[in-house]
């Protein structure tokens, strides 16, 4: 099992698909990594040699922010918005949608399960 950026990537899948299991690498980035390292996109992870896995690992370390560092950076950005007290920061603080979605109905993913209000029968 290949281990890249602290993540065990699945061995039976094609290399670009397996690389997307790393937080911070999507399908486009994964295909670019394969091109840069010189790995064919139709090869499987278990067919890679140790040198190729090492080359992929070094390329990701040098050019991409992934996993823990990326999560930390995103959390710091959200915390900065909350400390500033800007509109987006207030929305984060109140656990409401940040990007302009309506909240009268919907927004259940962000707000959580509906809380019943006493005496609100119609």
TrEMBL record:
Keywords: Ribonucleoprotein, Ribosomal protein, RNA-binding, rRNA-binding, tRNA-binding. GO terms for biological process: translation. NCBIfam families: uS13_bact (TIGR03631). Residues 94-122 are annotated as: Disordered. This is Small ribosomal subunit protein uS13. Transmembrane segments: none annotated. PROSITE patterns: RIBOSOMAL_S13_1, RIBOSOMAL_S13_2. Located at the top of the head of the 30S subunit, it contacts several helices of the 16S rRNA. In the 70S ribosome it contacts the 23S rRNA (bridge B1a) and protein L5 of the 50S subunit (bridge B1b), connecting the 2 subunits; these bridges are implicated in subunit movement. Contacts the tRNAs in the A and P-sites. Belongs to the universal ribosomal protein uS13 family. The gene is rpsM. GO terms for cellular component: cytosol; small ribosomal subunit. One of its GO terms (molecular function) is rRNA binding. It comes from Rhodovulum imhoffii. Part of the 30S ribosomal subunit. Forms a loose heterodimer with protein S19. Forms two bridges to the 50S subunit in the 70S ribosome. It comes from the Bacteria. HAMAP family: Ribosomal_uS13. It holds the Pfam family Ribosomal_S13. The keyword Ribonucleoprotein applies.
């Amino acid at each position: 099992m290949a281990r890249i950026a602290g993540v065990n990537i699945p061995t039976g899948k094609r290399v670009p698909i397996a690389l997307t299991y790393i937080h911070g690498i999507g399908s486009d980035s994964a295909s670019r990594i394969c091109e840069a390292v010189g790995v064919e996109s139709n090869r499987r992870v278990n067919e890679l040699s140790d040198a190729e896995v090492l080359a992929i690992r070094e390329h990701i370390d040098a050019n991409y922010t992934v996993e823990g560092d990326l999560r930390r950076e995103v959390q710091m950005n959200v915390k900065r918005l909350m400390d500033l007290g800007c509109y987006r920061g207030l929305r984060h603080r109140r656990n409401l949608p940040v990007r302009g979605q309506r909240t009268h109905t919907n927004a259940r993913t962000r707000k959580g399960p509906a809380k019943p209000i006493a005496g609100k029968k119609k």
